Input
Amino acid sequence: MTPESQPRTAAVVPAYNEEKHIGDVVRRTRQKLDEVLVVDDGSADKTADCAREAGAEVIVHEQNRGKGETIKTGLRHWLERQFDFVIILDADGQHRPEEIDRFVTAALSPEEPKLILGNRMKDVSSMPLVRRMVNRWMSQQISALCRQEIPDTQCGYRLLHRQLIPELLGGAARFDYETEMLIIASRKGFRIGSVPISTVYSDEVSSIHPVRDTIRFFKLMRRYKR
Output
């Protein structure tokens, strides 16, 4: 493939109070991609400043809107600029930018999946047991609803083809958006693929509210099962 025919790929990094990690994530991502957008979801710290200093383009939500809305802001931004693929990765260092090539290679395979997720379940030795069990259970439930196997539905490290993005600009506002994305893509007839990625846990503090976001998940599943 010649440089002229290479797909145009950009990154979206949704971020909320991630001044500690965001600079490193941006610098490493820019070693793989020229275009990196950080969407700061109303952070109270220096997330936006640190992202700019590291070389990212930054959009700031004046108030917290939720991860779903933050991702959608980034998707709209790159869709308007005619990019072919958009990579989504977290701001806390859990996703290794060095593995971006795996997603692009999979997107260019003969199967041409339009949505590709990272799969951490091939090596769960460093994944906490409770998280491992929850991930497997939720992945089974969502795979059944989507009618295709998705081994790690809870992984936020993803590649989207521009053909799919217009279908994903509505829906949930918070963490349940990442699940709804899979359901919408499946029901629109898009194939979902996966690539193995590293399981990385450091000192990140989850923004997921265990009770509130679990209730949102079950409400979402019930709505789509009707």
Notes: The domain at 7-225 is CATH 3.90.550.10 (Spore Coat Polysaccharide Biosynthesis Protein SpsA; Chain A).
